[in-house]
Amino acid sequence: MCLSHCNEYRTIQPLSLRQNLFSARCEAPPPSLGSDAWMTTHIQRSALLPYPAQALYDLVNDVASYPQFLPWCSASTVIEASDTHMRAKLEVAKGGMSQHFVTRNVLVPGQSIEMNLEEGPFTQLHGLWVFKPLGEKACKISLDLSFDYAGPLVRATLGPLFNQAANTLVDAFCQRAKQLNA
């Protein structure tokens, strides 16, 4: 069983301050005309799972296995790793398009994984996975992810693929946990 709760909003600042009908929030003063830094995508997802928090932490932290179950991940490499840090490179691909990005992750074993962009097609990318135990055999996992594309061309080409991947990430890990524990 995987009960998920999802929120997505984009920080959008049109010329007039108004609430966007698609869960967008206006949080910043209007940018200068022609500015591309005004569009931040912010995705929040959570799920309740009948597995221990440590098991889900281990699953999310197993970056090398991502291509086995994330359809948009064509390759993954752990560049360096310790108990408290990891640098990882993911190749995102669909059709003839592919891009890679590198994150530096701060690990709190069994509790959280914080990801920060080191290299890639974004001006910023920050993510936080939190694994909260609900007794010995269940947990709540949460993902809070925000990112800005490095320009309108990147947004137009990579945006649909990365947005879909980000929006389905928690569900993909729920399904993987179910497969591994069946």
TrEMBL record:
Domain of life from the UniProt record: Bacteria
Residue intervals of the Coenzyme Q-binding protein COQ10 START domain: 49-174
UniProt keyword annotations, A-Z: Toxin-antitoxin system
Pfam families according to UniProt: Polyketide_cyc
Molecular-function GO terms, alphabetical: ubiquinone binding
Gene3D superfamilies associated with the record: 3.30.530.20
GO biological process: cellular respiration
Family: Belongs to the ribosome association toxin RatA family.
UniProt protein name: Ribosome association toxin RatA
Lineage: Bacteria, Pseudomonadati, Pseudomonadota, Gammaproteobacteria, Pseudomonadales
